[in-house]
Design goal:
172 residues, mainly alpha
Length: 172
């Protein structure tokens, strides 16, 4: 949710013509087109997952919604990850380099960086807490553990691999 909120903030600031956000330019066309699908599939995946945690594996409709939303999410997140994976090390290095330069000059850290780190840590702690709280709901799912992975899941993984290779080849 933190990632969705921060991306939504950048989206709003760019399209309301904030100069600081406009300098970076528009989002990439493919990623901009896929963004609503990624957000919708993420919400459907999380929502159906919570519903299944409450009800167990019995409602076939919820299981199908969860699987289909996962397949859409997996395909779109794969494209998203492969579009940005090369930039991440550079962004991290720049962020830490600027931090070191500020420390050498005796300047304080900007509030934005502290807030970003704090929000990410808070989200991770809340997610871990939620996972521990949901452990008792795992019992009805024990029978699913030994099932073979077949069908659309295998197809989705194959599509993700082909998409990733296509994105990498297009970038060269």
């Amino acid at each position: 949710m933190a990632k969705t909120a921060s991306t939504g903030w950048r989206f709003i600031r760019y399209y309301t013509r904030d100069p600081a956000y406009c300098r970076k330019g528009p989002p990439r066309l493919l990623l901009g087109v896929m963004a609503p699908i990624l957000v919708a599939s993420t919400l459907a995946l999380i929502g159906s997952g919570i519903a299944l945690a409450v009800t167990g594996p019995a409602p076939e409709f919820l299981v199908r919604v969860h699987v289909v939303s996962f397949l859409f999410w997996l395909a779109t997140i794969a494209v998203h990850v492969f579009a940005y994976v090369r930039r991440v090390p550079q962004l991290i290095a720049e962020d830490w380099r600027r931090r070191t330069d500020r420390q050498k000059r005796g300047k304080p850290e900007p509030l934005g960086r502290r807030m970003r780190v704090a929000v990410n840590i808070a989200v991770l702690v809340l997610a871990a807490f939620a996972a521990v709280l949901l452990l008792p709901t795992a019992a009805p799912w024990e029978g699913w553990r030994g099932q073979a992975v077949t069908g659309p899941g295998v197809l989705a993984v194959a599509v993700c691999i082909v998409t990733a290779i296509a994105v990498l080849l297009m970038r060269r």
